[in-house]
Amino acid sequence: MSQLTTDQLVTITEFLSIVIGIAITWAVYYGSERAELPGEATIPDPSIADDMASDTRGRTLG
Q1: CA–CA separation, 51 vs 44, rounded Å?
Q2: What is the CA radius of gyration of the chain?
Q3: Helix (H) or strand (E) segment spanning residue 14
Q4: Who's near 2: CB < 8 A, 6+ residues apart?
Q5: Full-prediction pTM beyond 0.70?
Q6: pLDDT tens for each residue of the chain, 62 residues long
Q7: CA 21, CA 13: separation in Å to the nearest integer?
Q8: CA angle, corner 26, sides to 24 and 32, nearest 5?
Q9: How far apart are CA 62 and CA 26, in angstroms?
Q10: Dihedral of the CA atoms 24, 26, 32, 33 (nearest 10)?
Q11: Contact, 12 vs 4, CB < 8 A?
Q12: What is the largest CA-CA distance in the chain?
């Protein structure tokens, strides 16, 4: 059987939940200052032709 009491198990669970929440929050926001926000995208020069190859890197729906 476990050497921990019910109160100790609840305390450990609360602590681990808080730590996991902080870790998830950090993972979501880490590097977010480099994200391109709406309205900050550069306008391409119209005198330069578009690339003929599609950029397939990044997120996809498939």
Answers
A1: 12
A2: 24
A3: helix 6-29
A4: 9
A5: no
A6: 579 999 999 999 999 999 999 999 998 888 777 777 777 777 778 888 877 777 667 666 65
A7: 12
A8: 120
A9: 28
A10: 170
A11: yes
A12: 75
